[in-house]
């Protein structure tokens, strides 16, 4: 079992579900995460056979460094439900999970991921409106948003005045990041600063965006990520942001 102070503000390179089981109940105030979307297990977008098809230029065509993102859909949903159940165990009675996912059209019908979130206490769905994109399918409009499920325990309250924000948030996707599917830092800063969370878990940490946002806001984090390449990326990113923070504070102290 981890002792939280031993892993505070660090990245654990391992499997999300297994590693979460190593934490005691109610270790975190908040979980913020974006799991793999199972994109390669998809009808008709070219991702499936790895060629990319019409999406040949998309960063995710090659999948993640050590995970192929291609499970049978029922297994994928079962896995994600287990991950959510662990996150529920790990947040405090006034905690919440911000779970980012993407709806998509499969076989001509909307797949709105209800198989994953059904039965969890979803209090609100925030729409993250992204910029641009291309739609090659003449059967539906260009999808321009992802969803963030706010799954809240009964005692969860937003930070003072955060309830004035609407539930449609517009942030362009992150372009300057070698990870194929990063969050924009500003999106995660919006989530974290809308809460009073002191310590935040991201079990699918990717390139460390949740860590960077937490640090920028003076909060603590723990990140879990299966790829050692992305763990290194996260460490380097966090070190860079702490270095620029030091430079800024040194400059301020010279004024
Ligand atoms: C959508 S990305 C997260 C990106 C992240 N939000 C960021 O800003 O960089 C999902 C991540 O989950 C990781 N992953 C896949 N399977 C995993 C597992 N079993 N345990 C932990 N991480 C996993 C992938 O390597 C990928 O980096």
CATH architecture: 3-Layer(aba) Sandwich
Shape: globular
Q: What is the CATH topology classification name? A: Rossmann fold
Q: How many β strands by DSSP?
A: 10
What class, by secondary structure content?
alpha/beta
The poorly predicted ranges are: none
Rg, please?
18 Å
Largest pleated sheet: 8 strands, mixed
Count of helical stretches: 7
CATH top level label: Alpha Beta
Give the helix level as a range of percent: 25-40%
Integer count of domains:
1
> Bound small molecules, which ones?
S-adenosylmethionine
Share in β-strands: 15-25%
Order of helices and strands: HEHEHEEEHEEEHEHEH
Can you walk me through this structure?
With about 260 residues, this protein is an alpha/beta fold. Helix content is about 30%, strand content about 20%. The chain has helices spanning about 5, 15-20, 75-90, 115, 185-195, 210-215, 230-255, and strands spanning about 10-15, 30-35, 90-100, 105, 110, 120-130, 145-150, 170, 200, 220-225. Strands 1-10-9-2-3-7-6-8 form an 8-stranded mixed sheet. A two-stranded antiparallel sheet has the order 4-5. Helix 3 links the parallel strand 2 and strand 3. The model has no long low-confidence stretch (mean pLDDT about 90). The chain binds S-adenosylmethionine (SAM). S-adenosylmethionine binds near residues 181, 183, 207, 224 and 227.
Which characteristics define this entry?
Rossmann fold; alpha/beta; 7 helices
């Amino acid at each position: 079992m981890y002792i939280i102070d031993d892993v505070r503000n660090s990245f654990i390179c391992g499997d999300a579900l297994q590693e979460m089981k190593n934490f005691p109940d109610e270790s975190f105030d908040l979980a913020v995460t974006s799991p793999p979307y199972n994109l390669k297990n998809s009808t008709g977008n070219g991702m499936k056979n790895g060629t990319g098809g019409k999406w040949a230029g998309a960063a995710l065509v090659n999948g993640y460094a050590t995970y192929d993102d291609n499970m049978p859909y029922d297994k994928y949903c079962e896995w994600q439900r287990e991950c959510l159940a662990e996150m529920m165990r790990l947040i405090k009675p006034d905690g919440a999970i911000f779970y980012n996912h993407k709806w998509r059209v499969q076989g001509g019908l909307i797949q709105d991921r209800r198989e994953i979130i059904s039965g969890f206490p979803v209090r609100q769905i925030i729409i993250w409106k992204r910029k641009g994109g291309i739609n090659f399918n003449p059967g539906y409009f260009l999808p321009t948003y992802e969803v963030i499920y706010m799954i809240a325990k009964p005692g969860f309250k937003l930070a003072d005045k955060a309830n004035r924000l609407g539930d449609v948030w517009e942030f362009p996707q992150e372009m300057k990041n070698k990870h194929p599917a990063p969050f924009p830092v500003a999106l995660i800063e919006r989530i974290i600063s809308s809460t009073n969370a002191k310590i935040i878990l991201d079990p699918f940490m990717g390139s460390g965006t949740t860590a960077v946002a937490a640090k920028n806001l003076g909060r603590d984090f723990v990140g879990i990520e299966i790829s050692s390449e992305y763990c290194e990326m996260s460490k380097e990113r966090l070190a860079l942001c702490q270095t620029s923070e030091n430079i800024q504070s040194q400059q301020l102290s010279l004024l």
